[in-house]
Amino acid sequence: MKVKTFAQSKKYTGNFLMDRTVIVVDVLRATSCIIWACRNGANRIIPVSDAGEGAAIASRLGDCIMAGERGGIKLPGFDLGNSPLEFSPEVVKGHNIVINTTNGTVALKAAEGAANVLAGAMINHSAVARKAAELGKDVIILCAGTEGEFSADDICAAGAIATSLCQYAEITSQCDLTLVARSLYKDWKEGRVDLSKSYHYSRLIDLGFAEDVDFCFQEDITDIVPCYRDGFIQPC
Ligand code: MLT
Predict the structure, then answer these.
(1) For ligand 1, is residue 103 a contact (CB within 6 Å)?
(2) Helices 199-206 and 152-168 meet at what angle, rounded to 10?
(3) Which atom of ligand 1 is nearest to the CA of 107?
(4) Is residue 142 a contact partner of residue 157, using CB atoms and an 8 Å limit?
(5) Closest residue by Cα to residue 127 from 9, 1, 223, 15
């Protein structure tokens, strides 16, 4: 199996993603929210490009929770923001969720042409790696990034996923960013790297989301692997 890591989402054209498994990572916080919502019994999760598309889908579906953020803050008129702890069983069980975030849902939609699109984060890194290995295709770890830039939290989670992948599949080649991601993850895990100084991490702390950041950096607290297919996300 070949493994590549991309630092931020862009529109992939042609057959580039076809026949590959793409693991979309937005550890702070969109894929962590999606994983947690699936784990807590949400029905369908629909990532959308903007609030207008979200409103149209919500009026078609009827029962629907609207979730999303801009600049980390809940969108006006929405039910939920982008804090994983908001997606509790009491709130989401049995409900559809339309979600629109600055980078995470953009990355999911950018991956739409892939054979398989999975949502990964720190909280499910072993499970998402195991599932990707079972699917047997070459893997792209697609980091959402922040505001079009590389984001260290995503690269660290990509490293966790790539490290886990080595347990479940024979890796025949990995790109340089995958090597760097694995090394960052090892340094973080062994206490040599402090991600709290990184841009998005520190911005979330400044906005009062320290609890979210702590939650999102827990490793392997669930085996749930969300899969994005035909416009909606459900557990694989
Ligand atoms: C995003 O999609 O850009 C993020 O999940 C932002 C956030 O932390 O709310």
Answers:
(1) yes
(2) 120
(3) 2
(4) no
(5) 223
Work out the end-to-end distance of the chain between its first and last CA atoms, rounded to an integer number of angstroms. Answer: 21
Domain range summary for the chain, segments of one domain joined by +: 2-230
Q: Is 29 near ligand 1, meaning CB less than 6 Å away?
A: yes
In the CATH scheme, what is the homologous superfamily, with its name and number, of domain 2-230?
Answer: ComB-like (3.90.1560.10)
CA distance 119 to 217: 15
Query: Ligand 1 atom closest to Cα of 29?
Result: 5
Atom 7, ligand 1: residue with shortest CA distance? 72
Per-residue tens of pLDDT for the chain, all 236 residues: 999 999 877 766 667 788 999 999 999 999 999 999 999 999 999 999 888 888 899 888 888 999 999 999 999 989 999 999 999 999 999 999 999 999 999 999 999 989 999 999 999 999 999 999 999 999 999 999 998 888 999 999 999 999 999 999 999 999 999 999 999 999 999 999 999 999 999 999 999 999 999 999 999 999 999 999 999 999 99
Q: If DSSP codes are grouped into helix, strand and coil, which group holds residue 160? A: helix
Dihedral sign for Cα 185, 148, 121, 115, please: negative
Q: Is 75 in the pocket of ligand 1 (CB under 6 A)?
A: no
Instruction: Give the pTM.
Output: 0.96
